[in-house]
Amino acid sequence: MTAPVRVLVCDDQALIRTGFATIIDAQPDLEVVGECGDGRAAVDLARRLDPDMVVMDVRMPVLDGIEATRLLAGAGVENPVKVLVVTTFNLDEYVYEALRAGASGFLLKDAPPAQLLHGIRTVASGAALLAPEVTRQLVGRYAARIRPVPGTPEGTALAPRELEVLRLIANGLSNSEIAATLVISQETVKTYVSRILTKLDLRDRVQAVVYAYRNGLVT
């Protein structure tokens, strides 16, 4: 049998933290290995318990979830931990920073239990979790703030078709929507996505979205 995914839950609200842990522990393929209520404890526990992933709140005492994510999954971290950020919708201005800090995805706190479990399994598998409709609202809202200074974007190293796919990803389209837009198969889209990530040395789809906006590839 495959070992269960080991999850660390970090949220400063005890009721939410306990609720998440109860939902996760009820699954045969998931296991909660620890709980904590602030970002500093999350970093310390993650380093001690070595979980497969962390479910991380954004606003917490001592050290917020963004800084905790950067310490666990940011650039230069030797053994990065996968982080799934959970937040309330009216705090979405923090989510972009969390993604830049290294998070592999995020969910809204009012998401149903099935969506939380899907998110954990998705991120644990190495994929990114960025809901297309939330991508459009989040990145679109802050595009002016994150657009870089004028210059030649590094993304021009991509082939024209790859650039086209990257722009569609950044605009929040799923693989199936990209396939329909470009009239190609989903397998072909997956191939393009894989090439884009490899060429730009990006970890996942989330980083691709951030990259596209930071390099002015999306208007």
What does this entry look like structurally?
- With 219 residues, the chain is an alpha/beta fold.
- The protein folds into 2 domains: 5-141, 3-Layer(aba) Sandwich (Rossmann fold); 160-215, Arc Repressor Mutant, subunit A, CATH 1.10.10.
- Helix content is 50%, strand content 13%.
- It has 11 helices and 5 strands; from the N terminus they run E-H-E-H-E-H-E-H-E-H-H-H-H-H-H-H.
- The protein has helices at 14-25, 39-49, 65-73, 93-101, 113-124, 132-141, 143-146, 160-170, 175-182, 186-199, 205-214; strands spanning 5-10, 30-36, 53-57, 82-87, 105-108.
- A 5-stranded parallel beta sheet has the order 2-1-3-4-5, with helices on both faces.
- Helix 4 links the parallel strand 4 and strand 5 (105-108).
- Helix 8 (160-170) packs across helix 11.
- The model has no long low-confidence stretch (mean pLDDT 82).
How would you sum up this structure in a few lines?
With 219 residues, the protein is of the alpha/beta class. The chain has eleven helices and five strands; from the N terminus they run βαβαβαβαβααααααα.
Top keywords for this entry?
Two component LuxR family transcriptional regulator; 219 residues; single chain; Rossmann fold; alpha/beta; Arc Repressor Mutant, subunit A; 11 helices; 5 strands; Sig_transdc_resp-reg_receiver; five-stranded parallel beta sheet; globular; phosphoprotein; transcription; CheY-like_superfamily
